[in-house]
Write a structure and sequence with these properties.
This protein is mostly helical. It has three helices and no strands. Helix 2 runs antiparallel to helix 3. About 10% of the residues are buried.
Length: about 90
C-alpha cells in the first residue's frame, strides 16, 4: 500500500513539474536578466562619474542596450522552454 501511495505521489509530482515546464529554464532566464541588469547598473554608475556629457550619454545608452539585450535573451529562453513543452505534449 505504501508503495502505491509513493508511486502515485511521485507520478503526480512529475506531472506537476512537466506542466509548469520545470524551473531550471525559468531560473536561467531570470539569471540572464539579473546579470544584464547588474552590468547595466555598473555602466550607469560609470556614467554618473563621467568627465563629460558625451561620455555620460554614451555609457547610459550602452547600459540601456545591455539591459534590453538581457531582456531579449531571457524572453528567448522562455519562448524556447514554452516551445519545448508544447512539442513534448
Amino acid at each position: 500500500m505504501k508503495m502505491i501511495v509513493k508511486a502515485a505521489l511521485a507520478g503526480a509530482g512529475l506531472v506537476a513539474l512537466s506542466a509548469c515546464g520545470g524551473g531550471a529554464d525559468d531560473k536561467a532566464a531570470a539569471n540572464v536578466e539579473a546579470a544584464a541588469d547588474n552590468v547595466a547598473d555598473n555602466l550607469e554608475e560609470q556614467a554618473d562619474m563621467a568627465p563629460n556629457e558625451t561620455m555620460e550619454e554614451a555609457l547610459d545608452q550602452q547600459a540601456d542596450n545591455v539591459r534590453e539585450a538581457g531582456e531579449d535573451k531571457a524572453d528567448a529562453i522562455d519562448r524556447q522552454d514554452d516551445a519545448r513543452m508544447e512539442n513534448s505534449r
